[in-house]
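Design job #97: recover the sequence.
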């Protein structure tokens, strides 16, 4: 029989909320949002170009849906996956806008073989914080900002895909909130049954000890009566 003090820990119904501020892909979306705001002000018309609002909204949507997905993931992995996918779609839309700008303005897209390509990748991979980038926002040319934006968008997209796969595997292994609620309930019932079994066992032991004591008392009483004679 299990010791009554070795109670099984009941699984939590709610998942631990991810600290999105520490996620590298979230940090990069913060950079993308702020950089895109500066980019559109510097290099796109103030009025009459819908691209401005579209780019800023796409950048903001990418960032905000990561936050909302992480918060909703406490109760629903399904909703978290959906919102992360919305974030991916928004970042892909932003990527397309930066690539379109390069084509429309006949700029150079830095690809493998370009003299600045490796430096670009190294910088974007090793820097996640806004403070690492914003000092250059008003110094970079439109071509530089576009290529930085493209690189960050692709990195965020790849990281989001990896993160989604991690959550998917977690769901397969542990199930959603309904499964966790059922598991917690079963564990609670198991604990109650174990406690009841332990109580019954202790009662049986006490009853046996009580019977032995009664026999001893009767024996002693008989011996006392014999001595009195």
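Job complete. Output follows.
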């Amino acid at each position: 029989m299990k010791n009554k003090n070795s109670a099984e820990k009941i699984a939590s119904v709610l998942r631990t909320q991810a600290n999105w501020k520490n996620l590298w892909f979230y940090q990069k979306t913060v950079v993308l949002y702020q950089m895109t705001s500066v980019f559109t002000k510097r290099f796109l018309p103030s009025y009459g170009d819908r691209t401005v609002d579209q780019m800023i909204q796409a950048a903001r949507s990418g960032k905000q849906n990561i936050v909302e997905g992480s918060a909703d993931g406490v109760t629903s992995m399904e909703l978290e996956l959906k919102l992360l996918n919305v974030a991916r779609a928004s970042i892909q839309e932003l990527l397309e806008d930066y690539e379109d700008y390069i084509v429309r303005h006949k700029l150079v897209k830095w690809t493998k073989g370009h003299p600045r390509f490796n430096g670009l990748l190294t910088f974007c991979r090793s820097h996640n914080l806004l403070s690492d980038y914003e000092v250059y926002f008003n110094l970079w040319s439109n071509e530089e900002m576009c290529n930085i934006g493209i690189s960050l968008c692709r990195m965020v997209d790849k990281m989001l895909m990896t993160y989604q796969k991690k959550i998917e595997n977690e769901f397969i292994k542990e199930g959603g909130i309904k499964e966790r609620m059922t598991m917690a309930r079963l564990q609670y019932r198991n604990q109650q049954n174990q406690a009841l079994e332990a109580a019954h066992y202790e009662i049986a032991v006490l009853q046996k000890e009580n019977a032995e004591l009664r026999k001893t008392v009767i024996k002693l009483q008989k011996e006392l009566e014999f001595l009195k004679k």
